[in-house]
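Weekly puzzle thread! Below is a chain. First person to post its structure in C-alpha coordinate form gets bragging rights.
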Amino acid sequence: MARQIKLTSLLAGAAIAFSASLAWAADYTLTISSWAPPTHGINAKMWPKFVEMVEEATDGRVTAELKLGIAPPPAQMDLIQDGAADLSIIFHGYQAGRFVTTKLIELPGYEGSAEDASVAYWKAYEQYLSKADEHRGVKVVALHTHGPAQLHSSGQITSLEQVSGLKVRIPGGVGGDVGAALGATGIQVPAPKVYETLASKAADGVVMPMESRKGFKLTEVAQNVYEVPGGLYRGSFAFIMNEDAFADLPADLQAVLEEQVFGEPLSREIGRIWDEIDTIGRDATEADASNTINRASDADLAKFQEIAGGIVSAVIEEVAGAGVDAQAAYDMLKSELSAN
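Winning reply:
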Protein backbone atom coordinates (compact mmCIF):
# COMPACT_ATOMS: atom_id res chain seq x y z
CA MET A 1 0.00 0.00 0.00
CA ALA A 2 1.46 3.37 -0.94
CA ARG A 3 2.93 5.22 1.98
CA GLN A 4 1.22 8.50 2.67
CA ILE A 5 3.57 11.43 2.07
CA LYS A 6 3.69 13.76 5.02
CA LEU A 7 1.59 16.87 4.52
CA THR A 8 3.32 20.14 5.29
CA SER A 9 4.61 20.23 8.84
CA LEU A 10 7.98 21.03 10.25
CA LEU A 11 10.00 17.94 11.08
CA ALA A 12 11.17 17.52 14.63
CA GLY A 13 14.84 17.39 15.52
CA ALA A 14 17.59 18.70 13.32
CA ALA A 15 15.61 19.15 10.12
CA ILE A 16 16.74 22.00 7.92
CA ALA A 17 13.98 23.78 6.00
CA PHE A 18 15.37 24.96 2.69
CA SER A 19 12.58 27.28 1.65
CA ALA A 20 10.73 28.74 4.58
CA SER A 21 8.91 31.23 2.39
CA LEU A 22 7.15 28.48 0.43
CA ALA A 23 7.09 25.61 2.93
CA TRP A 24 3.99 26.95 4.71
CA ALA A 25 2.02 26.89 1.47
CA ALA A 26 3.17 23.53 0.13
CA ASP A 27 0.74 20.64 -0.11
CA TYR A 28 3.52 18.04 0.11
CA THR A 29 6.78 18.15 2.04
CA LEU A 30 9.33 15.48 1.21
CA THR A 31 12.07 14.40 3.60
CA ILE A 32 15.65 14.35 2.33
CA SER A 33 18.29 12.23 4.06
CA SER A 34 21.91 13.28 3.51
CA TRP A 35 25.18 12.04 4.95
CA ALA A 36 27.64 14.76 3.91
CA PRO A 37 28.79 17.48 6.35
CA PRO A 38 26.31 20.37 6.70
CA THR A 39 28.53 22.84 4.82
CA HIS A 40 29.52 20.44 2.03
CA GLY A 41 28.35 21.41 -1.45
CA ILE A 42 25.91 18.48 -1.51
CA ASN A 43 23.94 20.03 1.34
CA ALA A 44 24.83 23.69 0.88
CA LYS A 45 24.20 23.85 -2.87
CA MET A 46 22.89 20.66 -4.51
CA TRP A 47 19.88 19.88 -2.35
CA PRO A 48 18.83 23.55 -2.20
CA LYS A 49 18.98 23.60 -6.01
CA PHE A 50 16.82 20.48 -6.15
CA VAL A 51 14.24 22.05 -3.83
CA GLU A 52 14.28 25.28 -5.84
CA MET A 53 13.62 23.36 -9.05
CA VAL A 54 10.84 21.29 -7.45
CA GLU A 55 9.11 24.32 -5.96
CA GLU A 56 9.34 26.26 -9.20
CA ALA A 57 8.03 23.38 -11.31
CA THR A 58 5.10 22.69 -8.98
CA ASP A 59 4.22 26.31 -8.17
CA GLY A 60 5.16 25.70 -4.56
CA ARG A 61 2.86 22.71 -4.06
CA VAL A 62 5.83 20.42 -3.34
CA THR A 63 8.82 21.27 -1.19
CA ALA A 64 11.38 19.33 0.86
CA GLU A 65 13.31 19.43 4.10
CA LEU A 66 16.76 18.06 4.82
CA LYS A 67 17.73 15.82 7.72
CA LEU A 68 21.33 14.88 8.44
CA GLY A 69 22.75 11.84 10.18
CA ILE A 70 19.80 9.48 9.79
CA ALA A 71 22.11 6.71 8.54
CA PRO A 72 25.69 6.28 7.26
CA PRO A 73 26.42 6.61 3.51
CA PRO A 74 26.26 2.88 2.62
CA ALA A 75 22.80 2.56 4.23
CA GLN A 76 21.06 5.28 2.20
CA MET A 77 19.74 2.99 -0.53
CA ASP A 78 18.02 0.70 1.97
CA LEU A 79 16.81 3.72 3.94
CA ILE A 80 14.93 5.05 0.91
CA GLN A 81 13.62 1.62 -0.07
CA ASP A 82 12.20 1.21 3.44
CA GLY A 83 10.56 4.65 3.39
CA ALA A 84 12.47 6.09 6.36
CA ALA A 85 13.06 9.14 4.14
CA ASP A 86 11.77 10.18 0.72
CA LEU A 87 15.01 11.20 -1.02
CA SER A 88 18.74 10.73 -0.67
CA ILE A 89 22.04 10.78 -2.53
CA ILE A 90 24.08 7.59 -2.86
CA PHE A 91 27.67 7.02 -3.88
CA HIS A 92 27.69 3.78 -5.83
CA GLY A 93 31.22 2.80 -4.86
CA TYR A 94 30.25 2.43 -1.20
CA GLN A 95 28.25 -0.73 -1.93
CA ALA A 96 30.59 -3.31 -3.39
CA GLY A 97 28.87 -5.75 -5.73
CA ARG A 98 25.52 -3.99 -5.68
CA PHE A 99 26.27 -1.72 -8.66
CA VAL A 100 28.34 -2.69 -11.69
CA THR A 101 27.12 -0.62 -14.65
CA THR A 102 27.84 2.58 -12.72
CA LYS A 103 31.56 1.86 -13.09
CA LEU A 104 31.45 2.90 -16.75
CA ILE A 105 31.25 6.62 -15.94
CA GLU A 106 33.97 6.26 -13.29
CA LEU A 107 36.63 5.23 -15.79
CA PRO A 108 39.70 7.43 -16.32
CA GLY A 109 40.32 9.01 -19.70
CA TYR A 110 37.09 10.92 -20.31
CA GLU A 111 37.19 14.55 -21.35
CA GLY A 112 34.81 17.23 -20.14
CA SER A 113 33.50 18.78 -16.94
CA ALA A 114 31.36 17.19 -14.24
CA GLU A 115 28.37 18.91 -15.85
CA ASP A 116 29.18 17.39 -19.24
CA ALA A 117 29.81 13.98 -17.68
CA SER A 118 26.58 14.03 -15.68
CA VAL A 119 24.47 14.81 -18.75
CA ALA A 120 26.24 12.12 -20.77
CA TYR A 121 25.78 9.70 -17.87
CA TRP A 122 22.02 10.26 -17.78
CA LYS A 123 21.73 9.73 -21.53
CA ALA A 124 23.73 6.49 -21.36
CA TYR A 125 21.61 5.36 -18.41
CA GLU A 126 18.38 5.92 -20.29
CA GLN A 127 19.59 4.17 -23.43
CA TYR A 128 21.67 1.34 -22.01
CA LEU A 129 22.46 1.12 -18.29
CA SER A 130 18.93 1.19 -16.91
CA LYS A 131 18.35 -2.23 -18.49
CA ALA A 132 20.40 -3.80 -15.69
CA ASP A 133 17.79 -2.56 -13.16
CA GLU A 134 20.44 -2.08 -10.47
CA HIS A 135 18.40 0.60 -8.67
CA ARG A 136 15.33 -1.60 -8.34
CA GLY A 137 13.24 -0.63 -5.36
CA VAL A 138 13.86 3.11 -5.71
CA LYS A 139 13.23 5.78 -8.33
CA VAL A 140 16.36 7.32 -9.88
CA VAL A 141 15.75 11.06 -10.27
CA ALA A 142 19.27 12.13 -11.32
CA LEU A 143 22.75 10.78 -11.93
CA HIS A 144 25.99 12.70 -11.68
CA THR A 145 29.73 12.44 -11.26
CA HIS A 146 32.19 14.37 -9.19
CA GLY A 147 35.15 16.06 -10.80
CA PRO A 148 38.43 14.29 -11.59
CA ALA A 149 39.78 12.54 -8.48
CA GLN A 150 43.34 13.30 -7.42
CA LEU A 151 45.70 11.96 -4.74
CA HIS A 152 45.79 14.09 -1.59
CA SER A 153 48.51 13.19 0.91
CA SER A 154 50.30 14.38 4.02
CA GLY A 155 53.72 13.67 2.45
CA GLN A 156 54.72 15.12 -0.88
CA ILE A 157 54.16 12.85 -3.88
CA THR A 158 55.81 13.88 -7.13
CA SER A 159 55.80 10.64 -9.13
CA LEU A 160 53.44 7.78 -9.82
CA GLU A 161 55.87 5.17 -8.49
CA GLN A 162 55.71 6.75 -5.03
CA VAL A 163 52.08 5.66 -4.74
CA SER A 164 53.03 2.00 -4.46
CA GLY A 165 52.95 0.87 -0.83
CA LEU A 166 51.07 3.91 0.47
CA LYS A 167 48.05 3.43 2.71
CA VAL A 168 45.40 5.30 0.78
CA ARG A 169 41.71 5.79 1.44
CA ILE A 170 40.13 4.71 -1.82
CA PRO A 171 36.40 4.22 -2.45
CA GLY A 172 35.00 1.17 -4.14
CA GLY A 173 34.26 0.95 -7.84
CA VAL A 174 36.88 2.07 -10.34
CA GLY A 175 38.64 4.08 -7.63
CA GLY A 176 39.48 0.79 -5.93
CA ASP A 177 40.60 -0.76 -9.22
CA VAL A 178 42.95 2.17 -9.88
CA GLY A 179 44.39 2.06 -6.37
CA ALA A 180 45.13 -1.64 -6.65
CA ALA A 181 46.75 -1.17 -10.08
CA LEU A 182 49.03 1.51 -8.63
CA GLY A 183 50.09 -0.74 -5.75
CA ALA A 184 48.45 1.25 -2.97
CA THR A 185 47.10 -0.43 0.13
CA GLY A 186 43.43 0.48 0.03
CA ILE A 187 41.59 1.67 3.12
CA GLN A 188 37.84 2.00 2.71
CA VAL A 189 36.10 4.55 4.91
CA PRO A 190 33.14 6.78 4.00
CA ALA A 191 33.98 10.35 3.00
CA PRO A 192 32.78 11.89 6.32
CA LYS A 193 35.48 9.83 8.11
CA VAL A 194 38.34 10.96 5.85
CA TYR A 195 39.52 13.85 8.02
CA GLU A 196 39.93 11.80 11.17
CA THR A 197 41.47 8.91 9.22
CA LEU A 198 44.19 11.20 7.88
CA ALA A 199 44.59 13.15 11.11
CA SER A 200 45.17 9.93 13.05
CA LYS A 201 47.77 8.77 10.46
CA ALA A 202 45.68 5.66 9.74
CA ALA A 203 46.16 6.54 6.08
CA ASP A 204 48.91 8.32 4.14
CA GLY A 205 46.51 9.85 1.67
CA VAL A 206 43.12 9.82 0.01
CA VAL A 207 41.91 9.86 -3.58
CA MET A 208 39.07 12.37 -3.95
CA PRO A 209 38.06 15.31 -6.17
CA MET A 210 39.39 18.82 -5.55
CA GLU A 211 36.20 19.94 -3.80
CA SER A 212 37.30 17.82 -0.84
CA ARG A 213 40.09 20.28 -0.13
CA LYS A 214 37.33 22.54 1.21
CA GLY A 215 34.37 20.21 1.74
CA PHE A 216 36.27 17.76 3.95
CA LYS A 217 39.01 20.16 5.13
CA LEU A 218 41.84 18.28 3.41
CA THR A 219 43.91 21.47 3.33
CA GLU A 220 44.53 20.80 7.04
CA VAL A 221 45.47 17.10 6.97
CA ALA A 222 46.61 16.40 3.40
CA GLN A 223 48.66 19.42 2.37
CA ASN A 224 49.89 17.89 -0.88
CA VAL A 225 48.05 17.07 -4.11
CA TYR A 226 49.40 14.82 -6.86
CA GLU A 227 47.38 15.87 -9.88
CA VAL A 228 46.76 13.76 -12.97
CA PRO A 229 45.04 15.73 -15.75
CA GLY A 230 41.62 14.18 -16.26
CA GLY A 231 41.87 12.50 -12.87
CA LEU A 232 42.52 8.99 -11.62
CA TYR A 233 38.77 8.26 -11.84
CA ARG A 234 35.38 9.97 -11.48
CA GLY A 235 32.88 9.04 -8.78
CA SER A 236 29.32 7.97 -9.57
CA PHE A 237 26.30 9.26 -7.61
CA ALA A 238 22.53 8.99 -7.85
CA PHE A 239 19.74 11.08 -6.40
CA ILE A 240 17.08 8.52 -5.49
CA MET A 241 13.46 8.68 -4.34
CA ASN A 242 11.14 6.31 -2.55
CA GLU A 243 8.76 4.84 -5.13
CA ASP A 244 5.70 5.16 -2.91
CA ALA A 245 6.54 8.79 -2.13
CA PHE A 246 6.46 9.53 -5.85
CA ALA A 247 3.34 7.45 -6.44
CA ASP A 248 1.50 9.34 -3.68
CA LEU A 249 1.88 12.63 -5.53
CA PRO A 250 -1.03 13.62 -7.80
CA ALA A 251 -0.59 12.72 -11.46
CA ASP A 252 -0.18 16.34 -12.55
CA LEU A 253 2.68 16.88 -10.10
CA GLN A 254 4.34 13.64 -11.13
CA ALA A 255 4.19 14.73 -14.77
CA VAL A 256 5.67 18.16 -14.20
CA LEU A 257 8.51 16.78 -12.06
CA GLU A 258 9.34 14.19 -14.71
CA GLU A 259 9.33 16.82 -17.43
CA GLN A 260 11.04 19.77 -15.75
CA VAL A 261 13.18 18.41 -12.90
CA PHE A 262 14.01 14.71 -12.93
CA GLY A 263 16.53 13.20 -15.30
CA GLU A 264 18.73 15.37 -17.50
CA PRO A 265 17.72 18.81 -16.07
CA LEU A 266 18.62 17.88 -12.49
CA SER A 267 21.67 15.85 -13.53
CA ARG A 268 23.00 18.87 -15.42
CA GLU A 269 22.48 21.24 -12.50
CA ILE A 270 24.12 18.93 -9.98
CA GLY A 271 27.12 18.38 -12.25
CA ARG A 272 27.44 22.13 -12.76
CA ILE A 273 27.46 22.64 -9.01
CA TRP A 274 30.21 20.04 -8.64
CA ASP A 275 32.36 21.97 -11.10
CA GLU A 276 31.76 25.04 -8.95
CA ILE A 277 32.78 23.37 -5.68
CA ASP A 278 35.83 21.80 -7.34
CA THR A 279 36.94 25.34 -8.19
CA ILE A 280 36.32 26.43 -4.61
CA GLY A 281 38.49 23.54 -3.37
CA ARG A 282 41.32 24.39 -5.75
CA ASP A 283 41.17 28.06 -4.78
CA ALA A 284 41.37 27.13 -1.09
CA THR A 285 44.44 25.00 -1.81
CA GLU A 286 46.21 27.66 -3.83
CA ALA A 287 45.47 30.26 -1.14
CA ASP A 288 47.09 28.13 1.61
CA ALA A 289 50.86 28.58 1.70
CA SER A 290 51.28 25.18 3.38
CA ASN A 291 49.59 23.38 0.48
CA THR A 292 51.23 22.22 -2.76
CA ILE A 293 49.86 20.89 -6.07
CA ASN A 294 52.31 18.65 -7.95
CA ARG A 295 51.33 17.93 -11.54
CA ALA A 296 52.13 14.49 -12.99
CA SER A 297 54.99 14.42 -15.49
CA ASP A 298 54.50 13.46 -19.12
CA ALA A 299 56.24 10.14 -18.39
CA ASP A 300 53.84 9.43 -15.53
CA LEU A 301 50.87 10.34 -17.70
CA ALA A 302 51.97 7.86 -20.34
CA LYS A 303 52.43 5.19 -17.68
CA PHE A 304 49.00 5.90 -16.19
CA GLN A 305 47.31 5.77 -19.59
CA GLU A 306 48.70 2.27 -20.07
CA ILE A 307 47.40 1.22 -16.67
CA ALA A 308 44.04 2.86 -17.37
CA GLY A 309 43.69 0.97 -20.65
CA GLY A 310 43.71 -2.34 -18.81
CA ILE A 311 41.13 -1.08 -16.31
CA VAL A 312 38.83 0.15 -19.08
CA SER A 313 38.91 -3.23 -20.83
CA ALA A 314 38.22 -5.10 -17.60
CA VAL A 315 35.31 -2.84 -16.64
CA ILE A 316 33.67 -3.09 -20.07
CA GLU A 317 33.81 -6.87 -19.78
CA GLU A 318 32.43 -6.72 -16.24
CA VAL A 319 29.55 -4.42 -17.20
CA ALA A 320 28.69 -6.57 -20.21
CA GLY A 321 28.13 -9.39 -17.73
CA ALA A 322 25.28 -7.36 -16.23
CA GLY A 323 23.31 -7.77 -19.44
CA VAL A 324 23.84 -4.40 -21.12
CA ASP A 325 25.76 -3.40 -24.24
CA ALA A 326 28.76 -2.11 -22.33
CA GLN A 327 30.89 -1.27 -25.35
CA ALA A 328 28.10 0.77 -26.94
CA ALA A 329 27.47 2.60 -23.66
CA TYR A 330 31.18 3.34 -23.25
CA ASP A 331 31.46 4.55 -26.84
CA MET A 332 28.46 6.81 -26.28
CA LEU A 333 30.01 8.32 -23.16
CA LYS A 334 33.31 8.92 -24.95
CA SER A 335 31.55 10.50 -27.93
CA GLU A 336 29.31 12.73 -25.83
CA LEU A 337 32.21 13.99 -23.72
CA SER A 338 34.67 14.50 -26.55
CA ALA A 339 32.07 16.63 -28.36
CA ASN A 340 31.97 19.22 -25.57
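Puzzle host: Confirmed. Bonus trivia for everyone else. The radius of gyration is 20 Å.
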